[in-house]
Amino acid sequence: MPKILVANTYFYPLDKKQWRFKKPYPPLGTLGICALLESKGYTVRFFDNSLNDKPEAIEGVLGAFQPDYFLVYDDGFNYLTKMCLSVMQDAAFAMANLAHEQGARCIINSSDSTDQFAKYLDHNFDYVVLGEGDNTVLSLLMALADKKEPSEVRGIAYRNTGGEIKRTGAASVLKDLNSLPIAKWSLVDMAAYRKIWLDHHGYFSLNVATTRGCPYKCNWCAKPIYGNNYNMRSPEHVLTEIEMLVREFQVDHFWFCDDIFGLKASWVSEFRKMVKSKGLRFKYMIQSRVDLLLKPAYLDDLAESGLETVWLGAESGSQHILDAMDKGIQIQQIFEVVPLVKSKGIRVALFIQFGYLGESKDDIQKTLDMILQLMPDEIGISVSYPLPGTKFYEKVKNRLERKTNWSDSDDLDPLYATPFSAEFYKKMHRYVHARFRTKMHLQKIQKASWAVLKKPLPLAKDMLSLAYNGSRVILLRGEIEKTIYGDGAV
Question: Above pLDDT 70, what percent of the chain?
Answer without folding.
Answer: 94
